[in-house]
Amino acid sequence: MSTVIVPKKPYRVVWPSALNSKKSISDGRKIPISKCVDNPNPQEIFEACVKNLQFKAELQPFKCYPRDFTIAGRVLVSKESLAAANPPKKKKKALLALIASEIAKNPRKDPAKSTPSSSSSSPSPSAKDKDKDKSKQGKKNKR
Q1: Are 36 and 99 in contact (CB under 8 A)?
Q2: Which of 20, 25, 30, 53 is the one with CA 20 to 30 A from 67?
Q3: What are the pLDDT digits (tens) for 32-62?
Q4: CA 44, 49, 51: angle at the middle one, nearest 5?
């Protein structure tokens, strides 16, 4: 009988659900709510790992979370870069808390708030306002 040795994975998998404060533990949250962020996306996690924490990471945007297949995207963080970190991050929960704190430090830019409105002049009156104006004009003419 031969023994099969399975090699260990050279990376840690980080799913957005593990950092989401709106998820329960049974839904996949791995760290306390006080350390989580609201609805992180895989791109934010990737940027926090690569740009802020200087970890080697890979973004896989089309991989789906096994517990909820509607959530797409995950980040693979190299264990080599975690071991080289100061201090080394050997525990997954410590890594998740660190990533969540980096995401919280750099709030996302809301594109809806940052784009200027298309018409810089005063907004056009609505249909109700036009009807009110017409009824006022009609009353003036009757007098």
Answers
A1: no
A2: 53
A3: 999 999 999 999 999 999 998 999 999 999 9
A4: 85
